[in-house]
Amino acid sequence: MQPRSLIGSLRRIVGDRHVLVDPMELRVYECDGYTLEKSPPEIVVLPGSTEEVRAVVELLFREGIPFVPRGAGTGLSGGALPRGASVVLCTSRMTRILDVDPKGRRVVVEAGVVNSWVSRAAAPYGLFYAPDPSSQPACTIGGNIAENSGGPHTLKYGVTTNHVLGVELVLPSGEVVWLGGAAEETLGYDLLGLVVGSEGTFGIVTKAVLKLSKLPQETATLLAVFSSVDDATRAVSGIVASGIVPAALELMDRKIIDAVEAAYGFGFPTDAGAVLIVELDGRPEGVSAQLERTLAVCRTQGARELRVARDEKEREALWKSRKRAFGAVGRLAPNYCTQDGVVPRTRLSEILRFVEEVGRRHGIEIGNVFHAGDGNIHPILLYDERRPEEVEKVRAAGREILEACIAMGGSITGEHGIGVEKMEELRLLFSEDDLAVQRELRRVFDPLERSNPGKIFAMPGGCVETRRATRLGACKLGA
Amino acid sequence: MGRDESRPSGSELTRVLRERLGSEWLEDAGPEYAVGPARPETLAKPRSLEEVRELVAVCRSLGLALVPWGSGTHQHVGNAPSRLDVVLSTRDLSGIVDHDPADLTVTVRAGTTLAELASMLRPSGQWLPLDPPAPDRVTVGGMIAADLNGGLRFSHGRVRDWVLGLTFVDGVGRVVRGGGRVVKNVAGYDIPKLLVGSYGSLGPVVEATFQVRPLPACDRTFGVSAPSLEDAFRYATDIFDGPCSPLALDVLDAGAAAGLGLGKDPFVVVRLGGETREVEMQRDGMASFLRGLAPLEPAQCAALRDFTLRGPGSWGARFAVSPRELVHVALRAEEEASRFGLPLYLRVHFGTGVGFVRLSAESSKEVEAALGYLRWLRFLCRRFGGFCVYEQLPADCKALVDPWGPLDATLELMRGVKAALDPRRIFNPGRYCGGL
Prior knowledge:
The complex is a heterodimer. By secondary structure, chain A is α+β, with helices and mostly antiparallel strands. Chain A is about 35% helix and about 20% strand. Chain A is globular. Chain B is globular. Chain B contains 14 helices and 19 strands. Chains A and B meet through strand 9, helix 7, helix 8, helix 10 and helix 16 of A and strand 9, helix 6, strand 11, helix 9 and helix 12 of B.
């Protein structure tokens, strides 16, 4: 099929306005939150329902055209980068909350529903949706499911996979299946568990049943200021060792504090080495006992200052500082790249020292804002994309950091996914056999690798081949 | 699936197997290793991952069928395997591999019992907050394979929520590692999820890493009788909607309560944990609207935990529906049992939509009634988005009803998974749902 007639067919399915082909409009889709690589698609399709997704996918399947599923494009590993496929299927019009069931503590949503809308819809019933990635005002549930997203509160509550009970999945053939549902278990293999975190390589999720949690009766949020990152990480270990599982335990280092302060003026001491944000929640009696213990641990580890949020407004301000940290970094450099390694909690200070050393060695500025409680680091590497040598340094430094995480018994990604960014490193983490099994499982769902090709698995020569195979008609974009 | 007639007989193959692997960790399997009508000839007790791999590789090349075996407590579940030659016991694959308390993770070999794991974690003030039946016998590998959960799922989720990573040997003879050893990890597909509840149909789990938690300072279980099952659900709903955060919240019908020595009326069990003061205040809060709320004895708690294995009645079924429909389904299940003339014992994990029924049926008339009842129950559960697995059935009934129940469009995908990981169908052939 020639591109023009393909576009015509797509328009007949979703409507003229919902097929984008204008190069200016397509630029929005040339990358996601991972900006080291860009590749504009040729066509973006915005289906409005499962039926439209099904019809579009079936058409693409018949024509042998791969596609890239996309939510809000906030992913940080290039999962929605249109590399290896020139059609992007974006769920941004599928934004209905279909059912809120406070009794069963369930909600059914379309894939394009924004993460924070779910908690907003649940709040009148005293419930909330626990996974809270920093991008939650923008990122979609479909994207969260693809990436198995985390967030600060996943320390206590678990990541996306622990809160998804069912998905409606459009397979790359166009067949629609439900995996899981309103019941907490299903019969047979846990295919749902496999699909969550599969980065769009099993098809495209169109609906989801999510589990809601009861809002805690009491929440205490604390800011602890330390002279050094080392003191702060020792406090992290101390809190965990004292038998407390905080709702969240976040660390920001000096560079990030400076950026956040300059951008928003939250009143952080700018001469601090690191701050911890600790949140405890639960029953009032339990929270007050744990708060006492937490304060004691922080004091022992040399906290210079301890501020407990006095009301919801102060609490929100603290969280705003944390969740806007990435935005604030924009003031420091034209571009930045966020790493997502994980180490066992006990190796935190070691990996942070290593990150610092890597930055020094490569002459790159690196800030740290991360989920200290679960050992999930987020070094933010600053660069300027107009200077190719800086881009190269950032890639090299990122790779070194991830290799160190592997060496410490950790992982290369805690919540951002492999995408295109960490395909090489994945091979350091798993054996050939492990990866062969994963690829075989992918082919169970997607035998021809049409859904999000060229992601997760590095194939010798594979990406180039896919790219060549998928150009629509006359090739107008350089490979 | 019948044997290939041109192949040498089972005994001949067993001889070859032992020749290839030596006899140090292979022996004749006793009758206790039968799974339904299938009687294995060989009991293999590998002592290392490498020996597991060798065993699988040789069985694969000889076409011998294997059943992974922890302590055998749940081997009654599922179809009878169509072939069975070798039992792969994990008995000699036990113990902790790695536990750094500050990391809140533990890596353990599959043959370790849950009681052993608990006693190794306790000195560090930690636990794995899962409570399947018979922890003194159930192994880590068995818990994963049979997805064994208990009342704690109310607050702490299921096995799938606690396994961070695992190592297993697939039917191709590959050592496969999935997940990792850290608490947060999205590198590659979540293979561990696939193994949880796979009933040994994809290969034996050899080692697993779990996330663990600090032990609550105080952990106490209370119970109260209710005049009717409806009232019991009303109590549970009040607790569920109220300010308490129980660790577990179970409802028992009169039969189950009586069978567990908890009186002759329907019963609500609530387990509370946390700081001592937290537990006391919650108990006081509940006692104000639940007259007669009293602590349970440890023996009663243990009997409740073991309900699905050692509870009254010899038939057992597990069901799951949308939690919104649970009360309706449970009340109907109770009502309909009396219409079928069957004594019923019912336990549900409130708020999760999961429940268990046990039945007594001896005479042929009762057996017929029990089969009819279970068919009806499955029908009801399916109508409410769920399923019903007949976990304990007399052997001769397995041919009359499908222990698992029908699978929908996902069967094709599941066949694909089985074909990828066990193409020659050497693990528990025919045992799993859909005949996988």
